[in-house]
Amino acid sequence: MRVIDFRDAKCRHCYKCVRHCAVKAISVKDEQAHIMIDHCINCGRCLEVCPQNAKTFASDMDRVKGYLRQGFKTIISIAPSYAGVLEFDRPGQVVDALLKLGFAEVRETAEGAAMVTNEYKKIIRENKMPNIITTCCPSVNDLIEKYYPECVPLMAPVVSPMIAHGRYIKKLYGNDVKVVFLGPCIAKKQEAIGDERVFGAIDAILTFEELAIWLEEAGIDIHQCEEKPMGNPDPKINRLYPVSGGIVQSVVTEEEADEYHKVYVDGLENCMEMLECLKQGELTHCFIEANVCEGGCAKGPASARWNTSYVKAKVKIENGVSHKAAKELPDMSTEELKKKFQDNRLTDRMPTEADIREILKSTGKYTPEDELNCGACGYPTCRDKATAVFQGKAELSMCMPYALNQAESMSNVVMDVTPNMIFVIGSDLKILDCNKKAQELLGVGREEAVQRYIFEFIETQDIEETLRTKEPVIHKKIRLEHGKMTAEETIVYIENLDSVLVTFQDVTREEKMKEQHYNLKVETVEMAQKVIEKQMMVAQEIAGLLGETTAETKVTLTKLRDSILEEED
Q: Taking a C-beta distance cutoff of 8 angstroms, is the pair 241, 251 a contact?
């Protein structure tokens, strides 16, 4: 199932999503980023960092609206993080708003969390597992199954609170009921719909942001709603699941001491570091609460609309929690809450050392010293990027230093082969740069030229005027080399450098040819004038015989002469 994707033609060569994707689940082809479904853990990091807002995620809103239109009894399971994200005066107003949309009942996912907590407690009491990793975060689960399969035996064989709740609601009301999960997590979409091991527990997923859009469309203001109760008993401490350390607190509440060290880890990089430690056998007898989102689920990637700080969300959630264990647990067996995790490791084709060296050479990296490892492409090292190129995930052009060198090289070629003289002149009239033709004009090399001022070589009245007014000079005829060269002068002000770009195009040859052409026309005119004079004499003689005026003839011939000269103008 494709949960996250990119809009075509939105990418702008920034590779920000690649840099921030810890598992490098983004490929770039034809300068367009693509999500690799089999590599993605749906953490939503790329959604958060994309400057072009080019990422999209699958929406179930139309499906949910369809359930309601068709008259299906539809119950919504709302994640306890709503208390820290949504805006309301009293929590019960959220319940009323959801009922107004057409849902038959609103229940807290924390009810499912209470069941999961109870299963975690059983595993702890059994004391058979060397380490226990909680399995509430679907992104952590995918991370382990795909990238750290060695740690799969350490995963608590328990479904997430969402799945537990969905199964319980269907057990309570029958399989014909539709269950919709509402929360801040986009990874839940993959877990509910794309994981065949738990398929059927949840029928659709809505995010808090989608809910906000729907309420606006329906004209429902939460602040104007009545306060109505949830359809479930108070899940008490289990409402803390979205807060960092909330699972640990739920597990230890009203329990006797055990041999497991309780620790919580949040943030993708921290989770990966923890898993590396487990792989190396550096941790023993730990109960580990793991969440990909920093701060837990209190602010998932689908709650950015509210821009609420994690601390604020945490305080709001904790203020509505009773720090006691839930006593009224639903009637669900361990077997009903069980999930078997598996080794889903990826099998990317790996390059040989010769393959890597060849790819590195194609981007101008012939020695280890050439490998800058700048990370601009999104990969930590040049070798990692070369591996990605080999696997078809990256393109050679993603190497920024290489692309810059290529651009500079091309720019230098253009500068050097152009027949025009090009200068960059600073506001103090100092020469900042010049090409080879300009150096020939000055009679000095570049090293000396950039140490001197342009007024040492040529008249600078036009340059000074452009620096003062910032108005360009376009194709103005001037004399250079003490009148030996005719050039077309173009001067353009460069705002960010407070300097001017000066171009001289040598048009001496063209001007000479033009002068020769003009002289030829003048000679032609002179000859025409003589012809006119002779014709006038003949015309006068004829006119004398015929008694007619010569004025009309004179006008016609004169126009002929003048037209030749006007062609030059």
A: no
The domain segmentation of the chain, as residue ranges, is 1-58, 59-319, 418-506, 518-568
3-class secondary structure, 136: coil
Q: How far apart are CA 65 and CA 379, in angstroms?
A: 42
**Tokens standing for 530?**
């003589």
CA 99, CA 227: separation in Å to the nearest integer?
11
> What's the sign of the alpha-carbon dihedral 146, 244, 282, 257?
negative
> How confident is the prediction for the chain on average, in pLDDT?
88
From the centroid of its chain, how far is CA 226? 41
Cβ neighbours of 105 (radius 10 Å): 18
Ranges in the chain, pLDDT < 50: none
d(CA 181, CA 301): 16
Cα–Cα distance for residue pair 376/166, rounded to 1 Å:
44
User: What is the 3-state composition of the chain as percent helix, strand, coil, each rounded to the nearest 5?
Assistant: 45, 15, 35
Residues 427-446 as b or e (16 or more Cβ within 10 Å = b): eebbbbbbbebbbebbebee
Q: Is 434 helix (H, G, I), strand (E, B) or coil?
A: strand
CATH value of 1-58 in 2.40.50.140, 3.30.230.10, 1.20.1250.20, 3.30.70.20: 3.30.70.20
The amino acid occupying position 211 is L
Identify the residue whose tokens are 């306890």: 80
Query: H or E element: which one contains 206?
Result: strand 204-207
> pLDDT tens across 468-497, in order?
999 999 999 999 988 789 999 999 999 888
Reduced 3-state DSSP string for 500-556 = EEEEEEECHHHHHHHHHHHHHHHHHHHHHHHHHHHHHHHHHHHHHHHCCCCHHHHHH
Q: Quick one: tokens of 20?
A: 């921030």
CA distances from 126 to 119, 148, 257 (A): 11, 25, 13
Token pair recorded at residue 325 = 């264990």
Candidate CATH numbers 3.50.50.60, 3.40.50.2300, 3.30.360.10, 3.30.450.20; the one for domain 418-506: 3.30.450.20
**pLDDT at site 483:** 77
pLDDT tens digit sequence for 275-321: 999 999 999 999 999 999 988 887 777 666 666 778 888 898 988 88
Q: Smallest Cα–Cα separation from 122: which of 335, 340, 266, 289? A: 335
What per-residue confidence (pLDDT) applies to 510?
Answer: 82
